[in-house]
Amino acid sequence: MADWIPDVLGDEFEQLTLDLDADDEGPVVATLVRALPPESAWWGRVLGRRRVLHDADVLYVHGWSDYFFQKRLARFWTSRGARFFALDLRKYGRSLRDGQTPGYITDLATYDEDIAAALDAMGRGQDGAASERQLVLLGHSTGGLTLSLWAARHPKTADAVILNSPWLEFQVASARPLIAPVAELQARWAPRDVAPQVDLGFYTRAQQEVADDTDPMDIDLAWRPAQTMAVHAGWFHAILVGHGAVAAGLAIDAPVCVLLSARSAPPTRWSEVLTRVDSVLVVDDIARASLKLGPSVTVERIEGALHDVFLSRHEARDEAYERLERWVTGWSATR
Known about the structure:
Blueprint: E1 5-6, E2 14-23, E3 26-35, H1 42-46, E4 56-61, H2 71-78, E5 83-88, H3 111-121, E6 134-140, H4 142-153, E7 160-164, H5 176-189, H6 202-209, H7 233-248, E8 256-261, H8 283-290, E9 297-302, H9 314-333
Parallel strand pairs: 4-5, 4-6, 6-7, 7-8, 8-9
Antiparallel strand pairs: 1-2, 2-3, 3-5
């Protein structure tokens, strides 16, 4: 395994390249980014005081057409004593190599290899069980779908699952059963066919409009383009299969917290409204689908939030962190 090296985010962030099995496009890697908690004050160590999450590991997985860059989110966890890790999945962000189709996958379970390699590098073994530390899974959008399916396939591994606007249902939920058979046929015969580009870049513009000078983000547009990456038939079918699994019920045995915007709006034309809503998902449908994840699910609806609630305007973002703090505090108290 390669060594940890300084990450592009600078400061306290490091990255580790994880070699995976090659596919039809050649060598494949994932990339693990870490930030470790700062040392406690000397008087705290003398008195034996530990931070609330001193025994927790957090594993973050990004969404579609995305990668990890949110320093503030990492520091939320490390300031409370947790070790924070973020995984750039194969063919995304730091893991994208020349000649690869960005984000392309035909089965979300393929990411089990990426996650196993990350857990092993975190010192937890490939199944996550070789550690007494608590494991918190944190996923955004498609990453939330991926981690939900993984947690259901790996019971008694995650201790908590936190989802930031997880893509748990197709944008037109009632149409999914009709679309799925057609998508399956297309994925079988022409998996690399590309759907028309429908993203007009308004979600990216909304993030730029509400950006906070006190929390600057240097985003690499090669890794996170203003318009989404090309959608291929094989990948789209894999997503619909995942949605179908959620609709059937997953029975995740860890407590789940889902953070969502209070409202959605279609991004058909630019409007200031798009700076206060989720313009990617239909949040009411996601809220309903969330209740099928397991027996213990909390849904937090945040007024004025964007699709990534932690990239919303100042007031909504602070509210998202306050809701997360409240949930994590309660979860930690019951361990």
